[in-house]
Amino acid sequence: MSFDDRFGLLVDAELATRENRRVTRLLKSAKLKAPGAVPEDIDFSARRGIDKRQVMDLLTCQWIERGQHVVITGPTGTGKTWLGCALGREAARKGLSVSYQRMPRLMEDMEVAYSDGSLPALRTKLGKARLLILDDWGVAPITARGRQHLLEVIDDRVPGGSVLITSQLPVKTWHDYLGEPTVADAILDRLLHNKHTIELKGDSMRKHAVR
């Protein structure tokens, strides 16, 4: 092997090492709830109602590059969080920053931040992520101030910042969930006009896991 060939291999190895470190750093920062969720393990069986072509297209992460959104709905236990985290992991693999947030906890964090004056810093942090994952949308009531905080977080991401939402609630019920019509209209207009929807079906995967 010539010197140039050996040198080229060393350069390639160094670049690969740097890329691996970057992905590791992005995944650590993302704080995914299901860190073991990987695209290679996605269950495309018919009972789950997943369109394989759609998911494979989403795994290219072009939707993030285009500033689009993803909504994953379905009954409890059908794997919404897992699938959302798998998409988030793939985004990190492709060098995109990700922030996972469970909605009830995020609402609490924003209320605390509002009280102690750190809300602008929290919003800035959320706004920097190329992909914001909002898990468990609608599982807990939302206050008037919480609605306003949520609107500001979503508005900070327009244009260009993508949001992935998982929810047990069908999209058609989200307006009622959010409550106040004007704020609800503003939030949903920003989220739903440019989205991809996945509706998971079937029994709880947790039931299958314990058999």
UniProtKB/TrEMBL annotation:
Transmembrane segments: none
Domain of life according to the entry: Bacteria
Domain AAA+ ATPase: residue ranges: 66-199
Gene Ontology MF annotations: ATP binding
UniProt KW keywords: ATP-binding, Nucleotide-binding
GO BP term, example: DNA replication
The family this protein is said to belong to: Belongs to the IS21/IS1162 putative ATP-binding protein family.
Protein name (database record): DNA replication protein DnaC
Organism: Pseudoxanthomonas taiwanensis J19
Source lineage: Bacteria, Pseudomonadati, Pseudomonadota, Gammaproteobacteria, Lysobacterales
